[in-house]
Amino acid sequence: MEGPTVRMINQPLLPHRFEVVDLADHHATAASIRTMIVRGAGAIGATAGYAMAQAALEAPDASFHAFVGEAAERVQATRPTAQNLFFAVRAVLRAVEAEGSDLTRARAAAMAAAQEIADDDARCCEAIGRHGAPLILTGARVSTHCNAGWLAFVDWGSALSPVYVAAREGRRPFVWVDETRPRSQGARLTALELANEGVDHAVIADNATGHLMRTGQVDLVIVGSDRIAANGDVANKIGTYSSAVVAAANGVPFYVAAPTTTIDSDCPSGEHIPIEERGEEEVCYTWGWSDDGVFARVRTTPTGSHAHNPAFDVTPARYVAGIITEKGVVPASPEGIAQVVRR
Ligand code: MRU
User: Fold this and answer.
1) Distance (Å, whole) CA 98 – CA 211
2) Are 132 and 120 part of one and the same domain?
3) How far apart are CA 133 and CA 169, in angstroms?
4) How far apart, in whole angstroms, are the C-alpha atoms of residue 152 and residue 291?
5) What pLDDT, on a 0 to 100 scale, did the predictor assign at position 1?
6) Which residue from 278, 289, 284 is spatially nearest to 300, judged by alpha carbons?
7) In what helix (H) or strand (E) does residue 55 lie, and over which residues does it extend?
8) How many domains is the chain built from?
9) What is residue 5's DSSP assignment?
10) Residue 278 neighbours by CB distance under 10 Å
11) Which of 114-118, 167-171, 238-242, 339-343 is predicted least confidently?
12) DSSP code at position 186
């Protein structure tokens, strides 16, 4: 954030074009979450915090608390599944409310709370890397789904952070990158990150994962999460559940990496996690860069065909070997979650 402006990488243009967008007010910043200019649990949370700080700066003195309250509703309505978004909005609201009617202090508190959310995310993800890296032995072949790296957080990432630490420690991990249709966050973003980090990897079609696991070509799976229920059930990008079931069928350990800000202790089980449904055009069309340098949207389905597009799924806790958090690796169980949850 620079003054009242939030600056953001325009992720839909990656990996072919790097562009930073300026978001002048909280409406624009909320829209950037809804349209997925920014995406990924931690990045959404940090952005939501800054949107709330912008709202506090914009709010007229005469209707300060009503204005900030409406902004909170607006930001929370952008995307339903990522818990970090709700964590961030509530954290900024608490900071503002603690200052009562002193609006100068309330605005400063909102700014400080937003900055702390972003800084906390970076610290947590760095610690996730340290706790998760020992799971990756020399030359291990890691499977991951979607993008849970530094583009999805403030820094480091969740699922990819242990990979980056293991790589820096010289253990030469190899990563199977699920393409992650329909928006291809794996093919576009995870592959870009791994290439930048010098980590050996190959992008695979999502439906290749089962074959690779059955033929002994995957040593472990590490994925991120958008929301973790109090019983250890995990919501993550659509396709994660299939990967977890196939991993279990083939004796491949399946880990979830997430900061504790992703835990929703009010949510008893995965049945209660809201699953975002997105537009059918994401399935019917794909975006890409032609060899002539043209960025284009092309339709892959017949014009008369409709599509269905759930964006997340829930993996039951019994498939999860452990949850890698900033406080250590804990079992995906009520007891494990209770050990690390923030009160
Ligand atoms: O829809 P997205 O791209 O915001 O999806 C969220 C994710 O990035 C993933 O589900 C990820 O694996 C876990 S959160 C970084």
Assistant:
1) 54
2) no
3) 9
4) 28
5) 75
6) 284
7) helix 41-58
8) 2
9) B
10) 17
11) 339-343
12) I
Gyration radius of the chain over CA positions: 20
- What phi and psi, each to the nearest 5 degrees, are found at residue 19? -140, 140
Residue in the structure block whose two tokens are 């909005």: 89
Q: Which percentage of the chain shows pLDDT scores above 90? A: 96
Identity of residue 276: E
DSSP for 160-183?
HHHHHHHHHTT---EEEEE--TTT
Instruction: Name the token pair of 339.
Output: 């050990």
Q: 63 — phi, psi (to 5°)? A: -130, 35
Distance CA 242, CA 265 (A): 25
Residues 6+ apart with CB under 8 A from 77: none
From the CB of 39, is ligand 1 less than 6 Å away? yes
- CATH number of the domain where residue 306 is located: 3.40.50.10470
- 155 pLDDT above the threshold of 80: yes
| Active-site pick, 120, 178, 206, 226 | 226
CA of 306 to the centre of ligand 1 (A): 24
Residues 112 and 150 in one domain: no
| CB 147 near ligand 1, within 6 Å | yes
Among 126, 157, 190, where does a domain finish?
A: 126
Classify residue 303 by burial, with Cβ atoms within 10 Å: 0-12, 13-18, 19+.
exposed
Last residue of a domain, one of 82, 98, 126: 126
Ligand 1 proximity of 246 Cβ (cutoff 6 Å): no
Model pLDDT, residue 250: 98
> Within 13 Å and on the Cβ side, how many CA atoms surround 334?
4
Residue 206 known to be catalytic: no
| Cα(117)–Cα(112) distance, integer angstroms | 9
CA pair distance 177, 239, nearest whole angstrom:
13
Tokens of 225: 């999460």
| Alpha carbon of 294 to ligand 1 centroid (Å) | 27
Find tokens 């900033």 and name the residue. Answer: 326
Same domain, 196 and 144: yes
Q: Which domain holds residue 39?
A: 6-126
- Among 157, 178, 155, 166, smallest CA distance to 132 is for 166
